[in-house]
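Appendix B, record 7
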Amino acid sequence: MFGRGITTSLLQAQELLRLLDEHGTDVVTVGESFAAWCAAHMRPWVEDHVRMDTATRSLWAGDDLDLDGLLPSHLIMTAARMDP
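Structure tokens (predicted):
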């Protein structure tokens, strides 16, 4: 959705190249640093996509929107378009 996969992949490639420049052939440090960066910077996007997919499946099944949890960003953006 929204072309985020392309954007996040490019961000990951940029960070990985930066880490390789910084740490060279120390693959353990590069791997650990990259994993920590991904957890901090990519995981929120992945979690939002999971929420979007879950909410979409639920709404398509005729269920009510769950207002007790975090709302996925696509529903927030839709609401903002209707009432900025």
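Remarks on this record: The mean pLDDT is 91. The first helix runs from residue 4 to 23.
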